[in-house]
Amino acid sequence: MSERPVNVGVVGMNYWGPNLARNFDRLEGCRLAWVCDRDEAVLDRHRAAYPGSTFTTDLDDLLRDDDLDAVVVATPVPTHAPLARRVLEAGKDAFVEKPLALTGEDANALAALADAGGRVLMVDHLLVYHPAVAKVKELVDEGRLGQVFYLYGNRQNLGIVRPDENALWSLGPHDISVMLHLVGERPSEVSATGESYLQPGVEDVVFGRIRFPSGVIGHLHLSWLDPHKMRKMTVIGSERMVVFDDMETERKVTVYDKGPIPRTETYGEYIQVRSGDIHIPKIPAAEPLRIVCERFVRAVRDRQPTPSDGPAGATVVEVLEAMSRSLADSGRPVALEAGGAIA
Ligand SMILES: NC(=O)c1ccc[n+]([C@@H]2O[C@H](COP(=O)([O-])OP(=O)(O)OC[C@H]3O[C@@H](n4cnc5c(N)ncnc54)[C@H](O)[C@@H]3O)[C@@H](O)[C@H]2O)c1
User: Fold this and answer.
1) Is 203 part of any domain?
2) How many domains does the chain divide into?
3) Cα(76) to centroid of ligand 1, in Å?
4) Beta carbons of 108 and 132 less than 8 angstroms apart
5) 314 vs 105, 177, 187, 208, CA distance in Å?
6) What pTM value is reported for the model?
7) pLDDT digits (tens, 9 = 90+) for 195-248
8) Which residues line the pocket of ligand 1, CB cutoff 6 A?
9) Which atom of ligand 1 is nearest to the CA of 75?
10) Same domain, 133 and 248
11) Are residues 177 and 90 in the same domain?
């Protein structure tokens, strides 16, 4: 294996990009070679922090650099697909902020482009890399919850109100990516309802529903108009129930040994429930964004697959797009075509 560091450039340095730049800059085996934003004033805010990096307002400077391995796209959502396409076509690996694109068609085209060129394409579905989600995934995959019946996500707060993106597109990628990751199936049907109270045509609150072929149901409550700050995912199984609460510091994951008792042969007997121990597994206190960046650098260096690759990112976009159609049609269920990218 070469000792040469992986050279990374970050494009888009206003609000979120600096978090990515900081992590890539600090990672062993990685060099933040380029920092790019088309706004010179935005660049000026970061020059002192990265004296070893080259600053530019032009993405083409990065794409022309033969020593640059990968580009991180942290620009506004409508620019993700066109910029990621330029990066992949220049023969670079790409890390793209969520969501991967605005349409399933564009997202699947990017996944296909990366595949055809043997390039890494990874989407920043941050929570998929969260140690607490890894624990919940382990419990699901090992059958510790029994049969998974349904799961639901709460992502509510007062703000940040985005003018150009509704609560579904802004907050939904997090919960949808986690649900697809946990269930491991391509959804068959979705629906969504929502309301726009603050800005016409921009939903502040969205209730979404995902049906998976196995019968598992996922439910989402997404809102930036809510008194509670909630970042929670609950999974209900036939034998145990588990809650991932990202607002907690010491009990991110709680496993409830609760569930229904299978019905006995006796006719007419009520189904009884069982309420057992509550268990709090220890979760490593690692910054999820750091893990994401580490995984990307490893993928670039060792060509290792990641759980938020092009196909996974494209499925999330397909779900968002189908939910948007449902939202515009009073919650009518929208079927997702079989095939396409697999979550
Ligand atoms: N994973 C997360 O939890 C998380 C959180 C917040 C934001 N995000 C994502 O991060 C991305 C950026 O969000 P933000 O709030 O920082 O956006 P922003 O609009 O505040 O900043 C985007 C920056 O990109 C620059 N830019 C736009 N087009 C460019 C181009 N062609 N070349 C170079 N620079 C260009 C702009 O000048 C601006 O400085 C979005 O995709 C958003 O969804 C992710």
Assistant:
1) yes
2) 2
3) 4
4) no
5) 8, 10, 12, 18
6) 0.96
7) 999 999 999 999 999 999 999 999 999 999 999 999 999 999 999 999 999 999
8) 11-17, 36-39, 42, 59, 74-77, 79, 83, 97-98, 124, 126
9) 24
10) yes
11) no
Distinct helix (H) and strand (E) counts, the chain = 9, 15
Verify that 66 and 134 share a domain, yes or no: no
Domain contains 231: yes
pLDDT digits (tens, 9 = 90+) for 82-129: 999 999 999 999 999 999 999 999 999 999 999 999 999 999 999 999
Residue 39 inside a domain? The answer is yes
Same domain flag for 265 and 326? yes
Cβ–Cβ under 8 Å, residues 180 and 316: yes
CA 97 to centroid of ligand 1, rounded, Å: 8
Do 268 and 157 share a structural domain? yes
Residues 274 and 216 in one domain: yes
Task: Report helix, strand or coil for 125.
Answer: coil
Domain that holds residue 145: 128-286+318-335
The tokens of 320 are what?
A: 């968002």
Residues 69/300, Cβ–Cβ less than 8 Å = yes
Spatial neighbors of 64 by CB under 8 A, at least 6 apart, are: 90
